[in-house]
Inverse folding.
């Protein structure tokens, strides 16, 4: 199983809503990542979890709140988002954050904020 | 700060022919990793090939190969015998050897494959 599974695939939410994005992997990876990708642009790192601890927060606004309940799951809680937060949110995992190991990406959640 | 530059926003190639995508990067590190990722319309980022900076030999994966020029900080991707399924956006990415795992991506090159 070399899959990173993200749900939902599409999400439309209002600016006052609270929603969560979910990411799951069963490859035994200990590093998990959230990236944000705007249309026709490269992904930009948001958060890194290593051994279920947040190791990097790339100055992301507090309306995005990550959570790593266990080594297989990564959530991104969303609250009071703005229309400019509309983007593709990609989850990735790798065996370790510090090793030369491949990062596996999920198919992403296409988020639209209205 | 490290940067990655892809100077070709779009490229096209005839099916079965060869195409080269360009990538340059800037870093003061001596040890790092370089990657090419493919992102088809299905949105999933797929690793195509990777290169460790300490290795002089260019990486090869089937029809995909790189030309890694460390002194020139250049990392181009050659796709041989192009197939329709190769059509996608290709991102060059850099990662330094640290405990962050952070990938820094170039702006991407959209590859069109003509039948």
């Amino acid at each position: 199983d070399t899959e990173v599974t993200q749900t939902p695939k599409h999400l439309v939410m209002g600016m006052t809503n609270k929603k969560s994005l979910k990411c799951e992997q069963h490859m035994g990876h200990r590093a998990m990542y959230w990236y944000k990708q705007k249309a026709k642009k490269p992904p930009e790192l948001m958060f890194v979890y290593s051994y279920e601890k947040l190791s990097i927060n790339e100055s992301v606004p507090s309306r995005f709140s990550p959570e790593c309940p266990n080594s297989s799951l990564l959530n991104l809680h969303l609250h009071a988002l703005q229309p400019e937060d509309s983007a593709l949110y990609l989850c990735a995992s790798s065996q370790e954050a510090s090793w030369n190991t491949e990062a596996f990406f999920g198919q992403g959640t296409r988020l639209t904020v209205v | 700060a490290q940067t990655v530059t892809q100077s070709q926003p779009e490229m096209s190639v005839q099916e079965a022919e060869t195409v080269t995508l360009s990538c340059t990067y800037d870093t003061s590190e001596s040890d790092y990793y370089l990657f090419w990722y493919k992102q088809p319309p299905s949105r999933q980022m797929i690793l195509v090939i990777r290169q460790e900076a300490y290795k002089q030999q260019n990486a090869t994966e089937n029809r995909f190969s790189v030309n890694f020029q460390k002194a020139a900080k250049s990392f181009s991707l050659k796709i041989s015998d192009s197939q329709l399924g190769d059509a996608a956006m290709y991102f060059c990415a850099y990662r330094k050897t640290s405990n962050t795992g952070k990938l820094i991506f170039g702006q991407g090159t959209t590859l069109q494959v003509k039948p």
Notes: The longest strand of chain B covers residues 88-96. Chain B touches chain A through 22 residues (CB under 8 Å).
